[in-house]
Amino acid sequence: MLVVLLALVFAAIELLPGDAATATSERGEGAAGIAARRRLLGLDRPVWERFWDWITALPTGDLGTSARGERVGDLLAAPLPNTVLLGSTAFVLTVLGALALGVWAAARPRGLVDRAVDLTSTAAFALPEFVVAVGLMLVLSLWTGWLPAATVTGADGTPATWTMLVMPVLALTVPQTGWNTRIVRGALADQAATPHVEAARLDGLTTRQVLLRHALPGAWPAIATGVATSTGMLLGGTVVVETLFNHPGIGTVLAGAVADRDTPVIAAVVACSAALITVVLLLADLVRARTLGARP
Q1: What is the pTM of this model?
Q2: Do 40 and 87 share a structural domain?
Q3: Residue 252 half-sphere exposure toward CB, CA atoms < 13 A
Q4: pLDDT 10s digits, 227-243
Q5: In whole angstroms, what separates CA 15 from the centre of its chain?
Q6: Would you say residue 55 lies in a domain?
Q7: Kindly report the CA angle at 99 between 94 and 101, in degrees rounded to 5?
Q8: I need a labelling partner for 117 at 20 to 30 A (CA). Which of 29, 197, 260, 265 fits?
């Protein structure tokens, strides 16, 4: 699947208007200079040849060379920690927030809290990351001045202050918390109808004990699947959020690579993202297998 995905990336970029030689040419550069650059980048070769050379070098860790002459591995190494920090923080907050809200709503089925959480989570998931980001900028930056609207990097290439991470993290967290809250609530509702949970309730256990000791363990497979799905959504949202907030991460590099028609950079980002999503999905499958396998 990864090989097919990467082949589609090469083909899609080939169909875009222009190419890397034209996009990265100097102002006023003539047709001869652009043609020479095209030969230097190998763009005069068929796309399938370029893809084969790139994919066969991938297992060795060689991600190719960008259209501007930089090694793609070195190009991605600097912003990668910033994206990891942003994405992992949003991921952890998403899981914690979804679990807290889902359990809170499940403790009061069909009550006011349950209806409020259901409505709020649906609205949050319906909002794209860029809408949340613009709203946060408007309220927390332009109107109140509490947080900086854009990220300024320090000498080490990281955000100058931790406050510059708040709005990007929230812009990623809010939609995915809404999605996962609904999954947690639904999974707990399904478990509430199972015989062992009903038996625990009839034995006189408190609502908290029933939820945490009996319902939540059985709901882990569905929750793990939802969280794993959020990984891909978080990575996709990172591109938009990093661009809007000028966050120095992989998303900003990817946006520039698309503008430059820089196929090796785009393919490298897709390959790394797909590998990460595959690992997370594998972990979710292991959680599901372990949970279901332990039950009679």
Answers
A1: 0.84
A2: no
A3: 18
A4: 888 888 888 888 889 98
A5: 26
A6: yes
A7: 95
A8: 197
